[in-house]
Automatic annotation (TrEMBL):
Pfam families: GATase, His_biosynth. IGPS catalyzes the conversion of PRFAR and glutamine to IGP, AICAR and glutamate. The glutaminase domain produces the ammonia necessary for the cyclase domain to produce IGP and AICAR from PRFAR. The ammonia is channeled to the active site of the cyclase domain. Its EC number is 3.5.1.2. It comes from Lithocarpus litseifolius. SUPFAM superfamilies: Class I glutamine amidotransferase-like, Ribulose-phoshate binding barrel. Keywords: Amino-acid biosynthesis, Chloroplast, Glutamine amidotransferase, Histidine biosynthesis, Hydrolase, Lyase, Multifunctional enzyme, Plastid. Its main location: plastid. Transmembrane segments: none annotated. This is Imidazole glycerol phosphate synthase hisHF. Pathway: Amino-acid biosynthesis; L-histidine biosynthesis; L-histidine from 5-phospho-alpha-D-ribose 1-diphosphate: step 5/9. It catalyses: L-glutamine + H2O = L-glutamate + NH4(+); 5-[(5-phospho-1-deoxy-D-ribulos-1-ylimino)methylamino]-1-(5-phospho-beta-D-ribosyl)imidazole-4-carboxamide + L-glutamine = D-erythro-1-(imidazol-4-yl)glycerol 3-phosphate + 5-amino-1-(5-phospho-beta-D-ribosyl)imidazole-4-carboxamide + L-glutamate + H(+).
Length: 592
């Protein structure tokens, strides 16, 4: 049966304040900020060698037109396309869309901001015309959602109107965490062409809104995914494709999807490995704490209760490897995400931290799973008196290859002020970045420490009964949040902070524990259960892993969506693959 004829609602509208924020923070002049300081880009680039790219350049017509409207991380899409042997032509005018031989639209950020930019620049009408003519098109994530009639995100907001349906938010009242973040499986409905090589394996999703199947759009649907309800995971009509997940972040499986789109007439000589994916997988994340050593070189280090120096006469920074090389190895080993934490670079001048940006750029060339970066993402004024917003800082991280940014101390201060006044100002780094890029792009990192109690009523903060009593037999504890790398305690508990940052726009929580850090005795189950039960956004368990059994314990005893480790992976005490094999053996869904 033929799909219904295209009918679009491509109309112009004024550029909203959100889109103005978006376009100003992501403009070419913004990128130039990083070249106007005393740091030498050439000097630092020489210290990082990009892993050898094994792709082969395509022959003949090898150009992909990319619609990058200036939001979020499209570097990974660029890198994946280049990895597969194609060159890229960026859309500068609506005519570039109409002349494209094949068009990729990696939509990132908020629906309203994206539509405002497309309408203001005349891109919306050109997109509709291109797609209506059945030209080769691949939309990714928001690039799928914008094809529908409208979205409820900060709306209703009109979309391109090419596919019947309204994009709505996931329902978290049924116990499913929103955003939907992680590796999930597809139910392929029709001949999808580009999905032929998936082989029942996981792909990576990160979104809070989705389109639902209906009688009006069923002829478009090529696959669905189940997360509470069955939502549209991909569409196809002729040469027009769009996917809700991120193929550029879905490892080898995702690359096979992109390859199928770019080489539609190619045939697969090797049958894809058949997987056993059945539902949303628990994630295993490798974390790299990155800082400069005493010689000025960036190294991966690991603390013992946040102390990263060797206990030797030289007292040097503990060096566990080079960040780009280690990240590449963890990708090969099967890590579901790689997280970078810059633990020293931003104390004085965040925008001058060129080495960390280079790490992201080089890593994203050959690592096709999500990358998170944290450390010093805040407003600041430089030595010349020029003010930069946290949004500008985050924007350059996204443009350099980050998929998510992690906010620590600044989120604590924002939560304290919000709990004190009850007012969302919209000016905090958490609110600004979440508004422009979506809450799924914002992780809040919490660094609490136990404060033991004999009576839970002794404090105003949420206390828990401990599985293991304290040093003096205390049966209870509250978890005091800290800032500045654990050096300063604050008058707010982890429970109160988690609830507040969820309301302010956080999409995920990275939950550390100073007491467990580097001890190898297991995650703090009491803390993780407390927080994962308190919020409806995903929680990443961190600090304390020392054996594969610790990962099983945290997933079986808490509602954590992911577990993160550092030192045991760096020192090769417990390989990533061993963790996954153990989890699979214990009946816990993982991506293999």
């Amino acid at each position: 049966m033929e799909a219904p004829p295209f009918s679009s609602s491509c109309s112009s509208s004024p550029l909203s304040s959100t889109a103005r924020l978006l376009s100003s923070s992501s403009s070419p002049s913004s990128s130039l900020l990083f070249r106007r300081n005393s740091f030498s880009k050439t000097h630092y680039a020489a210290k990082f060698k990009s892993p050898r790219n094994l792709s082969v350049r395509a022959s003949g017509d090898s150009v992909v037109t990319l619609l990058d409207y200036g939001a979020g991380n499209v570097r990974s899409v660029r890198n994946a396309i280049r990895y597969l042997g194609f060159d890229i032509k960026d859309v500068q005018t609506p005519e570039d869309i109409l002349k494209a031989d094949r068009l990729v639209f990696p939509g990132v950020g908020a629906f309203a901001a994206a539509m405002d930019v497309l309408n203001k620049n005349g891109m919306a009408e050109a997109l509709c015309s291109y797609i209506e003519k059945d030209r080769p098109f691949l939309g990714i994530c928001l690039g799928l959602q914008l094809l529908f009639e409208s979205s409820e995100e900060n709306g209703p907001v009109n979309g391109l109107g090419l596919i019947p349906g309204v994009v709505g938010r996931f329902d978290s009242s049924n116990g499913f965490r929103v955003p939907h973040i992680g590796w999930n499986t597809l139910q392929i409905k029709n001949d999808s062409e580009i999905l032929d090589d998936i082989g029942n394996r996981h792909v990576y999703f990160v979104h809070s809104y989705r389109a639902m199947p209906s009688d009006d759009n069923k002829e478009w649907i090529s696959s669905t995914c189940n997360y509470g309800d069955n939502f549209i995971a991909s569409i196809r009509r002729g040469n027009v494709h769009a996917v809700q997940f991120h193929p550029e972040k879905s490892g080898d499986v995702g690359l096979s999807i992109l390859r199928r789109f770019l080489y539609p007439k190619s045939t697969t000589t090797k049958k894809p490995t058949e997987g056993k994916a059945s539902k949303l997988a628990k994630r295993v994340i490798a974390c790299l704490d990155v800082r400069a050593n005493d010689k000025g070189d960036l190294v991966v280090t690991k603390g013992d209760q946040y102390d990263v120096r060797e206990h030797t006469e030289e007292n040097e920074v503990r060096n566990l490897g080079k960040p780009v090389e280690l990240a590449g190895q963890y990708y090969v080993d099967g890590a579901d995400e790689v997280s970078f934490l810059n633990i020293t670079g931003f104390r004085d001048f965040p925008l001058g931290d060129l080495p960390m940006l280079q790490v992201l750029r080089y890593t994203s060339e050959n690592v096709f799973v999500p990358l998170t970066v944290g450390g010093g993402i805040r407003d600041f004024t430089d030595a010349n008196g020029r003010h930069y917003t946290s949004l500008e800082v985050a924007s350059e991280y996204f443009r350099s290859g980050a998929d998510k940014i992690s906010i620590g101390s600044d989120a604590v201060y924002a939560a304290e002020e919000y709990l004190r006044t009850g007012v969302k100002t919209g000016k905090t780094s958490l609110e600004q970045i979440s508004r422009v890029y979506g809450n799924q792009a914002v992780v809040v990192s919490i660094d609490p420490r136990r404060v033991y109690l004999k009576n839970p009523n002794d404090v105003e903060f949420k206390a828990v009964k401990l599985k293991n009593p304290g040093p003096n037999g205390e049966e209870y504890a509250w978890y005091q949040c800290t800032v500045n790398g654990g050096r300063e305690g604050r008058p707010i508990g982890a429970y109160e902070l988690a609830k507040a940052v969820e309301e302010l726009g956080a999409g995920e929580i990275l939950l550390n524990c100073i007491d467990c850090d580097g001890q190898g005795k297991g995650f703090d189950i009491d803390l993780i259960k407390l927080i994962s039960d308190a919020v409806s956004i995903p929680v990443i368990a961190s600090s304390g892993a020392g054996a594969v059994e610790h990962f099983t314990e945290v997933f079986m005893k808490t509602n954590a969506s992911a577990a993160l480790a550092a030192g045991i992976f760096h020192r090769k005490e417990v390989p990533v693959q061993s963790v996954k094999e153990h989890l699979l053996k214990e009946g816990i869904e993982v991506r293999i």
